[in-house]
Fold:
Amino acid sequence: MKPYNILIVGVGGQGILLASRVIGTAALKENYDVKVSEVHGMAQRGGSVVTHVKLAQKVYSPLIEKGEADLIISFEQLEAFRWAPYLRKEGTLIVNTQKINPMPVIIGNAQYPKEIIPKLKDHFSHVHDIDAFGISKQIGNTKAVNTVLLGVSAHFIDLQKESWYSTLQEVIPPAHLDMNIKAFESGYNHISTI
Structure:
């Protein structure tokens, strides 16, 4: 059982905590020791949110240090850039192409950085940029970005597909389950075409 370190990053309200719960629960089903550590910025106001998820035979520390993440799942471009130093050189970075302006940009004190994804691709070998917002919009629910990104990430986390589905059935309320399964499958199938 190879240790695997995952950072899930984005801004408040994007469903980051639900995504970490799904990954952690699916990993528990396959007998991983799992540690999840959530760090909230100004989450209620769209501030930075990061969740550390560590999977191994035995996890001793809940936090991932710089250069130790095997996978970063970023729900927003600027957050991918902010947390990129935590990715190991041969790690994988999944970036939702969506841009959400932070407060300094909203009030006119700063500009949103340009060319974030090309800069990330210059520095890391395994960067996958995904329009998860566009995919979720196509399937009828823009709040399903997190589940689209989980579907993409399933290609990079060593868990059986059945564990993902049974976990979604456990943690997603029944009224939203069909939409979230559709979102998961859309993300999973999208990465297959890249």
